[in-house]
Design a protein that fits this description.
The chain has helices spanning 46-54, 93-103, 108-121, 137-149, 167-184, 195-201, and strands at 2-13, 20-31, 35-39, 61-66, 69-70, 78-81, 155-159, 188-192, 204-209, 214-220. The chain is of the alpha/beta class. It binds adenosine-5'-diphosphate (2 copies). Residues 4-226 form the ABC transporter domain.
């Protein structure tokens, strides 16, 4: 049931007098199927925490374990979605979503089925042949989500994924990600600074405190979601 374990993790950027303690003694366990929202003021270390889980940054002390194995660098078991989607502009929507499955040498059929399924999940079935620069912000973010999901990651790490979208698009995206989470039994770790968004989506909310980033409180919200 437990998927990720963060043990006594601290993160310091830089050296000696110019250093910043971004995370201090973080302990957190993420279970399979959870939708965790991390809430906290700007600069409290939310992104740093996500980067440590993703394997982009090594903690200064402590460790991150995924299924009892220490995380060493990024890989497709931990998919990341950023606030501004980073898509391949020379590829169509189809090619973006197929990229991961192709890298993993799936059969032609599996690649096509995976791509079709997740484009349907993000409501973009009619846009496979489009280039991503032809799409709106919300659509691009949906391509980025489909591309990550097509890798069947163990966990999806999202860093304020809807922060750059207008209010209506954001609401649609929130509903969409909640459906995807429910239908696919996905595990999601989701950063936001929007309290309403956290309360709407999360099964657990992790509240972080200002510098240095520590976990202030963890709220269980399960009851409201099923
Ligand atoms: P949040 O995502 O909550 O806004 P961050 O994790 O981005 O917080 O930042 C936490 C702290 O670490 C801040 O004080 C920030 O200035 C600092 N920080 C973040 N990234 C770096 C970096 N690459 N080098 C030095 N300091 C950084
Ligand atoms: P209560 O429901 O009485 O607040 P909790 O178990 O929620 O008790 O939390 C007790 C204290 O421990 C709180 O201050 C909370 O912020 C802190 N805490 C809970 N879980 C963690 C964790 N995984 N890492 C760090 N601090 C935590």
């Amino acid at each position: 049931k437990s998927l990720i374990k963060i043990e006594n993790m601290s993160l310091e950027y830089g050296e000696s007098i110019n250093s910043t303690l971004a995370l201090k003694n973080i302990n957190l366990e993420i279970n399979k199927g959870e939708f965790i929202c991390v809430l906290g003021p700007s600069g409290c270390g939310k992104s740093s925490l996500l980067k440590c889980i993703a394997g982009y940054v090594n903690p200064s002390s402590g460790r991150v374990l995924m299924q009892d194995k220490e995380v060493e660098g990024p890989d497709w078991h931990r998919g990341v979605v950023f606030q501004s989607p980073t898509l391949y502009p020379w590829m169509t929507v189809n090619q973006n979503v197929e990229f991961g499955p192709k890298m993993r040498n799936l059969s032609k059929n599996e690649i096509e089925n995976t791509r079709k399924y997740f484009l349907e999940e993000v409501d973009l079935s009619g846009f496979g042949e489009n280039y991503t620069f032809e799409l709106s912000g919300g659509m691009k973010q949906r391509v980025a989500i489909a591309r990550v999901l097509a890798n069947y990651p163990q966990v999806v790490l999202m860093d304020e994924p809807f922060g750059a979208l207008d209010a209506l698009t954001r609401e649609n995206m929130q509903n969409l990600i909640r459906n995807i989470w429910q239908e696919n039994n996905t595990t999601i770790f989701f950063i936001t600074h929007d309290v309403d968004e956290a309360l709407l989506l999360a099964t657990r909310v992790v509240l972080m405190s200002k510098q240095p980033g520590e976990i202030l409180k963890i709220f269980e919200l399960d009851f409201s979601k099923q």
